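1st attempt posting a full record on here, be nice pls
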Amino acid sequence: MHRILNAKSFWTLVCFAAFSIFTTSLVTKMWWLNIFTMILGLAFKYYGDEVCFPERAKLRKEREAKMQTYLNKRQEKNSNYLHNKRNRK
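the predicted structure (as tokens):
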């Protein structure tokens, strides 16, 4: 099962199925079919995106690491500011 989830062809099929369900719901005006489109789209976003687009996943991880270091520095500045403000009183 793990091997199937790591195949680009599987996630391409999932995207094709989501698009065909969406198109069917537009043509037939059965809007409740979009529930399945949303489920397949979210599954692709959370599980298949890294498989189909590994370079974008790498960039996203680098951006998250940079943001985390920025947030850590910001938290340190805030705690130093509060500590200095309390000591002044």
